């Protein structure tokens, strides 16, 4: 029997169960709806799945021989670079692009404000019960500082709007630089980056990991940045050459970094990044929120209605570009 299979971790099942009736109402006639976290059960029925939603390992996804549409539960589709054969030919992939714009833009601004007010040092002093305010030369204000924003999708666009309201001068970079974006003072395509690295006080990476962005920031680019600048990455770890970044932070090529994503996750316990006083580490949770499942289900239900009525799906991922 044709099946709509929603596969999520056990701790999320209860959050999506209330949407079962709506899934059954919107699904094509005769299609059964299964919501589960049991990978063994999934392996038994995946061959019947016409629609998949959630998160599946590549080796299991490749067995979905009747798959026509896969709604993944996150935004990044860089797994396609590593396992292109896992998505059956002819199946459409859609993602959750746009779902994380609010929380991730706030995460980016949290890094920026934390560095401006020297909060990493303050937290270390608090842990040691030391009353020691930061020196005047360690604090700065945001108006007039330059934010170089790589990527102007939903996350980048909202970040630009908020950053500009705080007085930051925003320079945006994206492939289609002829489309204006609110809050962006200057807009360029990636070919202009060599001229832009030296101008930025903050560089924020809000890009997907694709063949074009893998290793985008390495030793050459880091050396072109200001010694007083900060690098923020909420995209994917593979966009930045991590050994080069460690060297840059150790030797003062840049002032600091706010990092939510890493080349290897979890970040190994012996990584020098953990102990660097000029680094803020968050464990890849910039996109998390207590209402994530609510927003994800809204996208799934909208796309399911489109699928059943043969309308174009929302957030279709290009297999070649990877986003």
Write a concise keyword list for the protein shown above.
323 residues; alpha/beta; Rossmann fold; 2 domains; seven-stranded parallel β-sheet; five-stranded parallel β-sheet; 12 helices; 32% helix; elongated
CATH class of the largest domain reads Alpha Beta
Domains (count): 2
Terminal CA distance reads 31 Å
Q: Count the E strands.
A: 12
The CATH topology of the largest domain, please? Answer: Rossmann fold
What name goes with the CATH superfamily of the largest domain? NAD(P)-binding Rossmann-like Domain
Elements, N to C (H/E) = EHHEHEHEHEHHEHEEHEHEHEEH
Average predicted confidence as pLDDT: 96
Outline type: elongated
Strand-residue proportion: 15-25%
The main sheet comes to: 7 strands, parallel
Helical residues, percent: 25-40%
Widest sheet: strand order? 8-7-6-9-10-11-12
Give the arrangement of secondary structure elements.
Elements: E1 3-7, H1 10-16, H2 20-26, E2 32-36, H3 39-45, E3 49-54, H4 58-61, E4 69-72, H5 79-82, E5 92-94, H6 101-116, H7 119-127, E6 146-150, H8 154-165, E7 169-173, E8 186-188, H9 193-196, E9 202-205, H10 219-224, E10 230-233, H11 242-251, E11 256-259, E12 279-281, H12 292-308
Parallel strand pairs: 1-2, 1-3, 3-4, 4-5, 6-7, 6-9, 7-8, 9-10, 10-11, 11-12
Written description of the protein model:
α6 crosses α8 (154-165). This protein has helices at residues 10-16, 20-26, 39-45, 58-61, 79-82, 101-116, 119-127, 154-165, 193-196, 219-224, 242-251, 292-308, and strands spanning 3-7, 32-36, 49-54, 69-72, 92-94, 146-150, 169-173, 186-188, 202-205, 230-233, 256-259, 279-281. The protein folds into two domains: 3-99 and 289-308, Rossmann fold (3-Layer(aba) Sandwich); 101-281, Rossmann fold. It has a seven-stranded parallel β-sheet with strand order 8-7-6-9-10-11-12, covered by helices on one side. A five-stranded parallel β-sheet has the order 2-1-3-4-5, sandwiched between helices. It is an alpha/beta fold and 323 residues long. The mean pLDDT is 96. The longest helix is centred in the last third of the chain and has 17 residues, at 292-308.
């Amino acid at each position: 029997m044709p099946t709509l299979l929603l596969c999520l971790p056990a701790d999320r099942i209860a959050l999506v169960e209330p949407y079962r009736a709506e899934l059954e109402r919107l699904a094509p006639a005769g299609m059964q709806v299964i919501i589960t976290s049991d990978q063994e059960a999934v392996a038994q029925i995946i061959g019947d799945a016409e629609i998949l939603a959630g998160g599946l390992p590549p080796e299991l996804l490749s067995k979905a021989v009747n798959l026509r549409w896969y709604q993944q539960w996150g935004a990044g589709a860089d797994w396609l670079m590593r396992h292109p054969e896992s998505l059956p030919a002819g199946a459409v992939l859609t993602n959750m692009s746009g779902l994380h714009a609010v929380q991730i833009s706030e995460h980016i601004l949290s890094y920026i404000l934390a560095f401006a007010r020297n909060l990493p040092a303050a937290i270390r002093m608090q842990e040691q019960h030391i009353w020691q305010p930061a020196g005047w030369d360690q604090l700065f204000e945001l108006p007039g500082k330059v934010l170089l924003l790589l990527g102007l999708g939903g996350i980048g666009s909202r970040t630009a709007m908020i950053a500009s309201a705080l007085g930051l001068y925003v320079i945006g970079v994206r492939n289609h630089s002829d489309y204006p974006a609110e809050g962006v003072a200057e807009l360029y395509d990636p070919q202009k980056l060599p001229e832009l690295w030296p101008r930025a006080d903050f560089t924020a990476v809000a890009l997907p990991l694709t063949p074009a962005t893998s290793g985008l920031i390495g030793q050459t680019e880091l050396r072109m940045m200001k010694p007083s600048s900060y690098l923020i990455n909420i995209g994917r770890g593979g966009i930045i050459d991590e050994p080069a970044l460690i060297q840059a932070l150790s030797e003062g090529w840049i002032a600091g970094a706010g990092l939510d994503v890493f080349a290897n996750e979890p970040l190994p316990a012996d990584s020098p990044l953990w102990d660097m006083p000029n680094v803020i580490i968050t464990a890849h949770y910039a996109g998390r929120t207590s209402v994530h499942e609510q927003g994800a289900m809204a996208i799934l239900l909208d796309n399911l209605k489109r699928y059943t009525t043969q309308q174009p799906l929302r957030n279709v991922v290009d297999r070649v570009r990877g986003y």
